[in-house]
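User: I'll paste a sequence; please echo it back and then give the predicted structure.

Assistant: Echoing your sequence first, then the prediction.
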Amino acid sequence: MPRSVNHAASRARRKKVLKLTKGYYGRRKNVWTVAKNTWEKGQEYAYRDRRVKKRNFRSLWIMRINAAAREYGMSYSVFMGKVNKSGIGLNRKVLADLAMNNPEAFKAVVDQVK
């Protein structure tokens, strides 16, 4: 008896991955093994970089707060130490937004912690 192979299912599986790799360059978009490897690697990067994005934003906020705090004669570490000690409940994201978009509000925070 001949071997039974479900070609419809395997073809559908391949078509699904090839559809996901549409727009890639060269063989990455239309050769099954290359496309599959590329797509899998992309999923690994996406998973990893969802976490890396959080680190990058925290780093950006720290740079912005540091630059704004130095205009008032304080380093980032001194400023954040005083913010925490004074009980101001603003996180780095909000402080960085104030420093960029609302400097007078950031100055009020600096005056309060001094």
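The helical segments are 7-20, 32-70, 76-86, 92-101, 103-113. The longest helix spans residues 32-70.
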